[in-house]
Amino acid sequence: MGTKLIIDTDPGVDDAFAIALAARSADVELLGLTTVYGNVPLEATTRNAQRLLALFGRKDVPVAAGAERPLVYPFPKPRDYAVHGEDGLGGSEGLPDPLRDIEPVDAVTMMVQLLEASDEPVTIAPIGPLTNIALLLAAHPGIREKIARLVIMGGAVAGGNISSAAEFNIWADPEAARRVLVEESVPTVLVPMDLTHRCAVDAPWLDSLAASGPVGAGLNALTTDYRAYYRTILGSEGMVMHDAVAVAEAISPGILQTQSWPIDVDCGFGPARGATIVDRRTPEAPDGGGRPPIPPTVDVAVDTDLDGLRTFVHDRIAGV
């Protein structure tokens, strides 16, 4: 088997495409989905994950519910935030009912069980707020050696979406994000919205996916509200599939080009709360009289073959 993968998610339309990419890839052993609050409350994200797995025919994949709020402060989600529709998956009426009950353990416990049971390190793809991952690493420090790497969708180098400085997933729980991105030593790839926006797909791409079969049609049916939102952002018909870009890297290491940079997360209460501060300065040589080199901590995705990435996601989901 290929990549062993756990996805931590808050579905979410782009999460749906990301989960489909993993669930439909023959070289991925999808060990489980863990859910977190985010695009909608935890109860909805969990049911969305269950129903998506039913659409993909993956009764074998367990789902465990995780954090329902951030680590420290209340979740400040704006009341008018409905990018993904009221239930997180606009148009989800056509999704099948769950094929499997939620696991009787919480998300962190299930991740520990899956990691300990694996005979090789497992990739974790967190594509929602990082609360579950921060709890996992804080409560179970010895589990780090069982994690191959984290491939995180989140953050922004040059400006955010939920605020002028911050991207939604990091802004939702900056304290958790700082724990994961700054204080831990697990190999990490951060896939920021600067790159995911460039990977936007257009109407013909979505139409082609919809024509590929029941899974593609089912996914396309979820995009009405999401596409309406991105019509105002992109100025054309299409959408940004943020989370699927990160899962593509989790499945196919190197499909994204990265730069290693030190990162911090603003946990203050000003307008930059939740911002990912990426230090892109070139360190000077120690004997050059300048500042000493700063060890890089996170591999930040900066580029990809855009058409190749879109084809990879399309063909995997379509079963080509």
Q: How would you portray this structure in words?
A:
It is a single chain. This protein has 320 residues and is α/β, with parallel strands linked by helices. The protein has one domain: Ribonucleoside hydrolase-like (Inosine-uridine Nucleoside N-ribohydrolase, Chain A). Helices cover 35% and strands 18% of the residues. It is built from twelve helices and twelve strands. The strands form three sheets. It has an eight-stranded mixed sheet, sandwiched between helices. Helix 1 (13-23) packs across helix 12, helix 3 (107-117) crosses helix 4 and helix 4 crosses helix 6 (174-181). It is globular and about 50 Å long. The two termini are 19 Å apart.
Quick structural summary:
GO terms for molecular function: purine nucleosidase activity. It contains twelve helices and twelve strands.
Which descriptors apply to this entry?
12 helices; Ribo_hydro-like; two-stranded antiparallel ribbon; 35% helix; Inosine/uridine_hydrolase_dom; alpha/beta
Structural class: alpha/beta
Strand order of the largest sheet: 3-2-1-4-5-6-12-9
CATH fold naming: Inosine-uridine Nucleoside N-ribohydrolase, Chain A
Provide the domain count.
1
Model regions low in confidence, pLDDT < 50 over at least 5 residues: none
Along the chain, the helix and strand elements come as: EHEHEHEHEHHEHEHHHEHEEEEH
Number of helices: 12
**What does the overall shape look like?**
globular
- In whole angstroms, the N-to-C terminal distance is 19 Å
Fraction of residues in H or I helices: 25-40%
Query: What's the Cα radius of gyration?
Result: 19 Å
Which CATH C-level class is it? Answer: Alpha Beta
What's the number of extended β-strand segments?
12
CATH superfamily assignment?
A: Ribonucleoside hydrolase-like
CATH architecture: Alpha-Beta Complex
Strand content: 15-25%
Pfam family, one: IU_nuc_hydro
GO biological process, one term: purine nucleoside catabolic process
GO cellular component, one term: cytosol
Keywords: Glycosidase, Hydrolase
